[in-house]
Design a protein that fits this description.
Number of helices: 14
Structural class: mainly alpha
Largest sheet: 2 strands, antiparallel
Oligomer: single chain
Number of strands: 2
Length: about 280
């Protein structure tokens, strides 16, 4: 009888463990994808079929009438809500990245007592719930006359301690030699930051942009406070399907499907940069 090679025997536990990891990851992937499938399946189900007790995982046919009714409903104005959410999310993302990058750069480069105090305050801010700032932010927004405006939706929410701290951590790893070489060429700190540091921090910028965009697009409580008819966002529109008389499940799932498409698209486009940015920032 031929003897088994020693390396084959010793590798068996490794192969078994690797196979178990794949199985576990596959099961977890199915669990994470299950809510998306339920949303997709119910979005193309009529109201009559939805309340039926004969619920099928694989429907016989897809009913597009619910989606058509959503987009054709002028009172609901779903396309307008999507535009409002897009303006809010893009505007908040751009301003948050702009402000937080400069703040993070300053905290990473200037080592003095003032910078230390600001860093500690930033970390303390991370521990406080975001809703804590809503009352003073709402008072400020009301006094400035920003209710039912894009300024009211975007400006009070553009300051992010998380984004500032994330940029600060990543910029600590940025090679100082590049900045010193730029300074020797006569560039001031402002020019060095925008022409040297920013182009070489695309991964971190993309990571913060992705996280900020998803958070802004999915925000509900702040738009609920300041948005009115002219700036109603997607999340507020979806809440109209849940009333005291009941929940319109077919319309709610169809609207949810429309709402997650931009978020999934942004995540798929920037996921590589998201992972890279989290790794270089020390937040993984």
């Amino acid at each position: 009888m031929a003897e088994e090679c020693p390396h084959m025997v010793t590798n068996r536990p490794g192969h078994i463990l690797h196979g178990l990891k794949i199985i576990v990851l596959f099961i977890l992937s199915l669990l994470f994808l299950l809510p998306f499938y339920v949303i997709f399946r119910n979005a193309f189900t009529s109201s009559d079929a939805f309340v039926s007790s004969d619920w099928q995982w694989l429907p016989d046919n897809l009913d597009f009438s619910v989606l058509r009714d959503l987009f054709s409903d002028t009172d609901l104005n779903l396309p307008g809500a999507m535009i409002h959410s897009a303006i809010q999310a893009v505007g908040q993302t751009a301003l948050t990245v702009f402000v937080s990058f400069m703040a993070g750069y300053g905290l990473a480069r200037y080592r003095n007592k003032a910078a230390t105090v600001m860093l500690r305050l930033t970390v303390l801010t991370l521990m406080a719930p975001t809703a804590v700032t809503f009352v003073p932010s709402f008072i400020m927004t009301t006094r400035f006359g920003w209710i039912d405006s894009y300024r009211g939706l975007i400006i009070p929410m553009m300051f992010s301690a998380f984004a500032t701290y994330m940029f600060r951590q990543s910029l600590l790893e940025f090679p100082r030699e590049l900045e010193e070489a730029s300074n020797l060429d006569g560039a001031n700190p402002w020019t060095t930051m925008w022409r040297i540091v920013v182009p070489n921090s695309k991964g971190n910028i993309a990571a913060v942009s992705t996280i900020t965009f998803i958070g802004a697009w999915n925000s509900f409580l702040w738009p609920l406070l300041v948005a009115r008819e002219n700036t109603t966002t997607m999340q507020l529109t979806l809440s109209r399907f849940m009333t005291s008389q009941g929940v319109e499940y077919s319309e709610l799932f169809a609207g949810a499907l429309v709402a997650i498409v931009p978020v999934v698209f942004v995540f798929l486009v920037l996921q590589r940069y998201l992972v890279q940015g989290l790794e270089t920032s020390g937040m993984d």
